[in-house]
Amino acid sequence: METFVQQVLAGIATGGIYACMALAVVMIYQAIHHLNFAQGEMAMFSTFIAWQLLQWGIPYWLAFGLTVMISLAGGFILERTVFKPIENAPVLSHIVVFIALFAIFNSLAGFIWDFTIKPFPSPFGSAALFGEGLIGAHQAGMIVITLVVLLLLFAFFRYTRIGLAMRAAAANPESARLVGIRVGTMTGLGWGMASAIGSVAGILIAPMVFLEPNMMLSILLYGFAGAVLGGLTSPGGAVFGGFTVGVVENLAGTYIPVVGAELKLPIALFLIVAVLVFRPTGLFGHRVIQRV
User: Fold this and answer.
1) What are the structural domains of the chain?
2) Integer CA distances (angstroms), 230 to 7, 41, 243, 275, in order
3) For the segment 207-243, what is each residue's pLDDT rounded down to a tens digit?
4) What predicted TM-score, i.e. pTM, was given to this entire model?
5) What CA–CA distance (Å, rounded) separates 119 from 121?
6) pLDDT tens digits, 123-136
7) Residue 84 three-state SS
8) Are 252 and 267 in contact (CB under 8 A)?
9) DSSP string covering 43-78
């Protein structure tokens, strides 16, 4: 029983990271109706920025906040300068740009900070929480920060004018323009917020996987799995899907001998395929009907 509880708690901790990535994926998907294959590399690059700020002697939480703000601005600028000019281009053009961004961020991070593995500090330490060994202090901190971020996002989209405008722009751009909402600005802000959320995920996971340019590749796949499971049209579903993927992969790796630690990633890929085959809209997604 103790092992089961330990794996569930660890799954919730890593699932919070997957939930952040899934939410970032869904936010961009709702803005442009495409998956951002460079989302993980953007988060990785932001994590390197946080590491560099720490190396310069900036306190952890100040570096954390600065990195989130830099990522927010960077995501907004990226959408305005790269994707705004090609918003009406064919889908394949968008995919090519996403792949190009993936390679650019990966190579640029390696060029600036090299490809060696770097330790990333945790403000929570690595000791077991309460001395029981059920969950580490950093894992508990990951859960708390993830929940705080998700609650702040819920309040932002629910109770602020900008959040409501972003929801309207994503749901019905034409009607939003008719009531004076600047849809382009809202799209850019969505990109910025997705980038900021991704930076939080990168900073929180870095102490567990170590910092290097390829650190977010598997995390992004888990985030895609969570987004697809919950529904690409449902931010709340994406969060649920991220937590579910984290718990499922941990339990499968513990209790299914053939899976183990080496085959956890195929669990996420299997979930993506299974959901797309049997329920393409995800658990909480809805069908998009267009008049032609």
Assistant:
1) 2-278 (1.10.3470)
2) 22, 23, 10, 9
3) 888 899 999 988 888 899 888 888 888 888 888 988 9
4) 0.89
5) 7
6) 887 776 655 666 78
7) coil
8) yes
9) HHHHHHHHHHHHHTT--HHHHHHHHHHHHHHHHHHH
